[in-house]
Design brief:
Elements lengths: L3 H4 L2 H24 L4 H5 L10 H20 L13 H16 L13 E4 L7 E4 H26 L6 H5 L3
Antiparallel strand pairs: 1-2
Helix pairs in contact: 2-4, 2-5, 2-6, 4-5, 4-6
């Protein structure tokens, strides 16, 4: 039997990263069709103090791989955050998808009660049970960054809709 922590995380990350990949592909095609410099999209922000699209995608993929790894009790893969193009972002998504797809569901058998300790962007550590980490921390942050990436592109005229965002399930 597959553990609920696995089914509540891995398939969801796969679905949403697939949607993010498709949205980015539409943005790249839109840039080509309209003769827009791709960097206009890659560096676009919803507000000056927010991350640009490029960083939103990096952080979304960081949450997908980090949450998955911590719940599975394995080391979090390190990615260098050197992406500069749509192709680079697609490669990053493919890399993260390959990692999360490689995680055996059995690794998640004790994930709900596993202690997860983070120090996200601050010197203060936070302690969670796996269940709380997934539901109250990991998924909200993941969805924030995938939603913001979508919103940046939609705001800039890329013809994407909810079906693109949600991806295939």
């Amino acid at each position: 039997m597959t553990h609920a922590m696995y089914t509540s995380s891995i398939p969801l990350f796969k679905q949403m990263l697939g949607g993010l990949s498709a949205v980015l592909a539409k943005a790249q095609a839109h840039a080509v069709d309209k003769k827009i410099d791709p960097n206009a999209y890659l560096q676009a922000r919803l507000y000056p103090d927010m991350f640009p699209l490029l960083r939103q995608v990096q952080v979304a993929t960081d949450f997908a791989k980090g949450v998955s790894a911590r719940l599975a009790g394995v080391n979090v893969p390190v990615l260098k955050d050197e992406e500069q193009t749509f192709a680079d972002l697609q490669t990053r998504i493919t890399t993260v998808l390959a990692f999360i797809e490689s995680l055996d569901a059995k690794l998640f058998d004790t994930a709900a009660t596993r202690e997860i300790v983070t120090q996200a962007g601050t010197p203060k550590e936070k302690r969670f049970t796996g269940q709380s980490y997934l539901v109250n921390y990991g998924l909200p942050h993941f969805f924030f960054h995938t939603t913001t990436a979508y919103a940046i592109l939609r705001h800039n005229g890329v013809e994407v809709g909810k079906k693109d965002y949600v991806g295939s399930y």
